[in-house]
Every structure is written in C-alpha cells, then in structure tokens.
Task: structure prediction
Amino acid sequence: MRKNDMILRTSFGVRLCHWVMVVCFFLVAATGLSWLFPSFSWLGGVLGTPQMARALHPFLGILVFLFLIYLFVHLVGSNLYQRNDLIWAKNVAKVLRNEHAENLRVGRYNLGQKFLFWGIMGLICALLLTGLMIWRAYFAQYFPIPLLRLALLAHSLAGLALILLVIGHIYLAIWVRGSITGMITGYVSRAWAKTHHDGWYAEVVAREDRDDLNARSK
Result:
C-alpha cells in the first residue's frame, strides 16, 4: 500500500481563482437580484449604497469573466467530450442513487460536470456581451434603445440561468461528500477518486507507477 492516501486533484492557482471568483460572483449576483426582484432589494446593500452597487456591479462582473477565462484555460482540456462519457450517461440513474459498483471509466470530470462547465462559460460570455452593451457610463450610447432593451432582457435571463447553474453546482458539491474539501485543500482520497472518477484514478496510478519505475532505474 502507498503511504500517502491522498491525490492532488486541483492546483493552488485554480483553487485560489475559484474561491476569489465565488466572492465576486456572490456580490454581482446579489446586486443583480436586488434590481430584478423588489423582494430582494435588501441584497443591494452588500456593496454599500445603491450608487456604489451600480458603479461596482459591472466591474465585478468583468472580474468574474476574467477569473472564468483563467479557469477555462486550465480546465478545458479535461472538459472535452470523450466516448467514455456515454457510459456515465447511460448509468446516470445509478450514479444519482450513489451506486458506483460498475466501471464507468469517468475521467477527471464526468459528463454532467462538463455540461455545467460549458453552460457556465457560455452564459458568462453572454453576460459580458450584453453587460457591455447596457453599461450606461461607457457603451450604452452607441446602441439604439430597442436593442438595449433586448440586451437588458437577455442579460437578466442569462444571469438567472447562471445563478441556477451555480446553485446546482453547490448542491452537487455538498451531495458528493469530499468534493468541497478537495476544492479547499486540493487533495482527495484515493477511495474518493476511484469511486467517482475511476478513469482519472487509473491514469494517476499509471503515472505514479511510471515515475516509481523511472526513479528505481536511475
């Protein structure tokens, strides 16, 4: 048996970016909801005065976009579709029942996580484009009012969709025990990796065996 029962799953840079982005996204989402729904108007206070919220909301939104671009560059390779993803899709009902007896050959991320990844990336691009269009201080004057109304509607819908995806992401991270700890420390147990991402775990073990063999041959 290996002495170390933990595997590095997420690098420090990705973890730091993720958690800073979480804070920024919460502030952006809270202020956006406060304007969209009167019953949530109290959420606008997270950034101080209404004027401060109006001023900071777009800048924080751009920060969220930049953080997601950083994550995209580092994670896109693991979120591309692979043929083995169909095995997970065919057994998704068992996965939801927490049955992992079969070899699903799941890579670093399963198909559901990949859909979430691309959904978030697509929505943040839509939010950036429409947000810039309706940014009154800099760009709104370059667009006709009917187009601005459509952009505002699209921005609101994309924002709500992104909030729902993030809520789903949080729920699943809590539901799969060990996921949040892994995103805080960067490490997951070998048992967790073998249960939820057996294909990725097999790659890690194979890489470790190659490294051990190379170390012995020197």
